[in-house]
Amino acid sequence: MTHDAPRPHRCRIVGVLDDGAASLGAPALQALAEADLVIGAKRTLALLESRIQPEAERRAIGGLAAVAEDIRQAQATGKRCVVLATGDPLCHGIAGYLGMQLCLDAIEVLPNLSTIQLACARVGLVWQDLKIESVHAKDAGEWPGPGAEPSHGLYALAQSLRRQARLAVLTSPDNTPDRIARMMQAEGLADDFQIAVAERLLQPDERIVTGLSIADAAQASFADPNVVLLWRQSARALPVRFGLPDASYEQRHPDKGLITKLEVRAVSLARLQLREDSIVWDIGAGSGAVGLEAARLCPAGHVYAIEKNDDDVAIAGRNRAALGVGNHTLVHAKAPQAMDGWADPDAVFIGGSGGELAELIALCLRRLRPGGQLVMNFVTIENLGTATSTLAGLGTEWDVVMLQASRSKPILHMHRMAAENPVWIVCARKAAS
Questions:
Q1: Of 77, 189, 313, 350, which cross-links 332 as Cys (Cβ 3.0–4.6 Å)?
Q2: Exposed, middle or buried: residue 36 (CB in 10 Å: 0-12, 13-18, 19+)?
């Protein structure tokens, strides 16, 4: 006759607030009293010292992987283990990670109120539609300004601010409320939001700071830990994402305007096969129209644009600011310079090549992700020939569309049709792996 091995004790992940044992219910207090091993931050362990049995081992959290291994070892030896987390362990907390590492059957979550709930309650802010962002991570450094890349620690927050009406931000000692406010100033968002900072919740020196402007918050300092709440002062305007009139963009004059015209822009963007999170390259950005509309079509993605002409870089930058686009990096250089550090793209648009067309095509096809699209616009037969011969030599699937649009123009009390220059749209697709 065989006997099944006893099932290991589930690790209890207990949510704790800064008033210590007062924030815990009977099941959490019982779990603490029965624990053989208690893992938590030094401050949290100190808060609950009197509730942990004297013979139990206390272990301060080092890294997340070490916590998971400590739990495995404790369960393998039949010990009861408790992990102390902050607030709701499943809201930007440790429980999600441990559940993936140990399997859900190995843990039991005893949640508490989240600090976000408490902060909203203090301010009276409805929070069911709140977007939660966390910058509770390593020091991100100051925001570099418009065009910051996704690698920056405040990038996700900057993009959420453009799309959301209400946000809660979990901060850190380095990524502070004043740093967030300075980022908002740099991105032109300071006048759009009200801010509140909930400091040291449930501690004797708790303070709720309201009534500050973003500009005031950028110069203030706040006690840690804290939670930032942000909400719009008026409803967010929903922008047109696709097919903006040419006149919506500033263009270089007295030239006719270095801009991909609306009709060509629409077909080119359609052929790029963009998704919400696409990474896009815009080479030879000109006034920026294609890249900026691509950025609007890919709110969870990013556009890297490059332009060699000084005046056009300035114009594209002003168009970016006027349209309120944040997921767009603009580089002043001649392609392919400065492109090595860009993320591999899902789609590439070439509007100008600066005489390096064959090299650029080879580079783009090499860097494109599997299934990615390369779309190029040409107005000269010579560039068309270079592009198609290069693509053929590389064994790439391609096709060409010639687009000839005519627009109505007034003539006396009537209208005539005026032809735009024909444009060849060359499209190539990188084979899926």
A1: 313
A2: middle
Report mean pLDDT in 10-residue bins for the chain, 433 residues. 66 94 95 95 93 94 91 93 94 92 89 95 94 94 96 97 96 97 97 97 96 97 97 89 90 72 95 97 95 97 96 95 95 94 97 86 96 96 95 95 93 93 95 84
Q: How far is CA 211 from the centre of its chain?
A: 28
**Of 255, 257, 238, nearest to 246 (Cα)?**
257
CA dihedral 329, 335, 340, 344 (to 10 degrees): 70
CA 27 to chain centre: 38
Backbone angles phi, psi at 29, to 5 degrees: -65, -35
Nearest 10 degrees: CA dihedral of 335, 341, 345, 348?
-10
DSSP state of 358: H
DSSP for 385-420, written as a single string: HHHHHHHHHTT-EEEEEEE--EEEEEETTEEEEEEP
Residues 258 and 285: their CA atoms lie apart, in Å, by 9
The token duo for 259 is 């801009």
Whether 108 and 11 have beta carbons less than 8 Å apart is answered as: yes
C-alpha separations of 67 from 50, 74, 79, 87, 285 in Å: 23, 11, 15, 18, 49
| CA-closest candidate to residue 195, choices 151, 173, 226 | 226
- Helix extents (H) in 77-168: 94-102, 115-123, 155-163
Euclidean distance between CA atoms 169 and 176, whole angstroms: 10
Alpha carbon separation from 225 to 96, 125, 203 (Å, rounded):
22, 20, 10
Measured distance CA(251)–CA(257) in Å, rounded: 5
Alpha carbon distance 319, 15 (integer Å): 47
**Where do runs of H (alpha helix) occur along 35-171?**
42-47, 64-76, 94-102, 115-123, 155-163
Query: 346-361 burial by CB neighbour count: b if 16+ within 10 A, else e?
Result: bbbbbbbbbeebbebb
> Cβ(233)–Cβ(193) under 8 Å?
yes
